Amino acid sequence: MKLFVYGTLMNPNTVKRLTGKSPTYEKAFLIGYEKYSIGYIPYIIKNKDSKVEGLLITNLDEKDLKKIDKYEGEGYLYTRKKVEVTTENGKERVYVYVGKNIKKGE
């Protein structure tokens, strides 16, 4: 399973602490979303005219995602969704955490 990350999960030490694995990353872009922050907490929301640069973690399994769900506050702060990202190898569908019930500028 693959996860597009754009904030704290870009730090390999954070991912290793959560999953016990050293992440394997590749560069990726998420088109149709925009990145914001509330204090130190990054989030993305839909914006058809924007794109977010981030990394794709490529070596996760379902157990890892459940651990990351807990860290991200999935269902409370974020919703984990399937999206299409662009990498140097083309397009693929992966997971991402999208800000839940957040509007631009909050």
The CATH architecture would be Roll
Give the percentage of residues in beta strands. Answer: over 45%
Task: Write the element-wise H/E pattern from the N-terminal end onward.
Answer: EHEEHEE
- Termini gap: 31 Å
CATH uppermost class: Alpha Beta
Any idea of the CATH topology? Hypothetical upf0131 protein ytfp
Q: What structural class is derived from the secondary structure elements?
A: alpha+beta
Average pLDDT rating:
93
Q: Stretches where pLDDT falls below 50 for ≥5 residues?
A: none
What's the CATH superfamily, by name?
A: Gamma-glutamyl cyclotransferase-like
Keyphrases for this structure?
106 residues, alpha+beta, Hypothetical upf0131 protein ytfp, 5 strands
Summary, kept brief:
This protein is of the alpha+beta class.
Walk me through the structure.
- The protein has 106 residues and is an alpha+beta fold.
- It has two helices and five strands, in the order E-H-E-E-H-E-E.
- It has a single domain (3-99), classed as Roll (Hypothetical upf0131 protein ytfp).
- Helix content is 18%, strand content 51%.
- A hairpin with a 2-residue loop joins strand 2 and strand 3 (41-57).
- The radius of gyration is 13 Å and the shape is globular.
- The mean pLDDT is 93.
SSE blueprint and pairings:
Blueprint (H helix, E strand, L loop, with lengths): L2 E3 L6 H8 L5 E14 L2 E17 L4 H11 L5 E10 L2 E10 L7
Parallel strand pairs: 1-5
Antiparallel strand pairs: 1-3, 2-3, 4-5
